[in-house]
Specification:
The chain is an alpha/beta fold. Helices cover 33% and strands 21% of the residues. Strands 3-2-1-4-5-6-7-8 form an eight-stranded mixed sheet, with helices on both faces. A six-stranded antiparallel sheet has the order 9-10-14-13-12-11, with helices on one face.
Length: 336
């Protein structure tokens, strides 16, 4: 570690050289590398957190550039997977730290493996289901995590420590499908930037132990000029931090399909572990339409069906209105 790189940070006495050493020895896992995750990854990379695992299931699109600060037009044109694009850009900013991009959909069967060695996990996701899952996994593995969420001009964040109160004390039930998302209600990059920076500060406080984390709910609205801390009490009846019951975790899942944040796109995830040989698949699909692949992804289009296929067998099927059509396209062309 070159100490000169961090001189303006170590001069902040409450962090200091001892805090910097702790940061360099630490591992942070960022779940979702989008509006929040790119800002968090940028902050923690520059701050010198020694190991960053960057997990994302998606690829870069033009409408991401308004708020996802690590990506550029070239990434969008190439549809580079977000985890890869983020790691590539960050490696030019700080070559002293380890960057571990993971292209995956975080689910109940892989989350424990993905976070088990983390000193802190950070929420960069865009949906409530994954936050419930992070909450359960982190409670079970006794890992501190930082929640963050933004919508429109508003955002929330809070730190969850292993003893609670936890995210479920704050949001008792997963909202019914149809709740507003960033594609329906929009999102301002300024709100995302502030919330993600507060999440990053929480991670640094947790890792260095030099200040109390914020375990209240911070609520901000950059359009209504409001910001407040709402005290969160531990709910003794909370299924997670009160009773230690995990409703989502380890629930074995068959193949599943998810709609992606209000787009006409569906993700289809195979029920079993697999490894795609892109060259083999490209040869198989060559007569059916236009097909090409990179190291990370295969892209296919026949003018009707269009999809991106990842090495783990997941595919994002484009321009489809419902799950059934997505699944039948998957069965027709990929068929795992
Ligand atoms: Zn709780």
């Amino acid at each position: 570690m070159n100490p000169g790189r961090y001189s303006r940070q170590t001069a902040f006495a409450r962090l200091g050289k001892a805090g910097q050493q702790k940061l360099f020895a630490a591992r942070a896992v960022i779940i979702g590398v989008g509006a929040l995750g790119t800002v968090i990854a940028n902050n923690l990379c520059r701050a010198g957190v020694g190991h960053l695992r960057l997990i994302d299931r998606d690829y870069v699109e033009l409408n991401n550039l308004q708020r996802q600060v690590l990506f550029d037009e070239d990434d969008a044109a190439k549809e580079t997977p977000k985890a890869i694009a983020a790691a590539e850009h960050l490696s030019k900013i700080n070559s002293e730290i380890a960057l571990e991009p993971v292209i995956a959909d975080v689910n109940s069967s892989n989350i424990e493996e993905l976070i088990k060695d983390a000193d802190v996990a950070l929420d960069g996701s865009d949906n409530m289901e994954i936050r419930f899952l992070i909450n359960e996994a982190c409670h079970k593995l006794r890992i501190p995590w930082v929640y963050g969420g933004v919508l429109g001009s508003a955002g929330n964040c809070m730190t969850v420590l292993p003893g609670g109160p936890c995210f479920r004390c704050f949001v008792p039930d997963i909202p019914a499908p149809g709740y507003p998302t960033c594609s329906s209600a929009g999102v301002l990059n300024m709100a995302a930037g502030i919330i993600a920076s507060m999440e990053s500060a929480e991670a640094v406080k947790i890792i260095t132990g030099s200040a109390e984390p914020n375990c209240q709910v911070f609520v901000l609205d950059v359009w209504n000029n409001t910001a407040e801390y709402v005290l969160l009490q531990k709910d003794p009846d909370c299924p997670v931090c009160g009773r230690g019951e995990y409703e989502l975790l380890g629930r074995l899942r068959e193949s599943y399909t998810t709609s992606l944040c209000g787009r006409d796109e569906y993700q289809v995830v195979p029920g079993r572990k697999t490894r795609i040989d892109f060259s083999e698949f490209e040869a198989k699909l060559r007569n059916a339409g236009n097909v090409s692949h990179t190291k990370f992804m295969l892209s296919f289009s026949d003018g009707r069906i269009e999809f991106n296929l990842f090495a783990d067998g997941r595919a994002i099927i484009k321009n489809v209105k419902d799950e059934r059509t997505a699944r039948s396209a998957y069965a027709e062309y990929i068929g795992l």
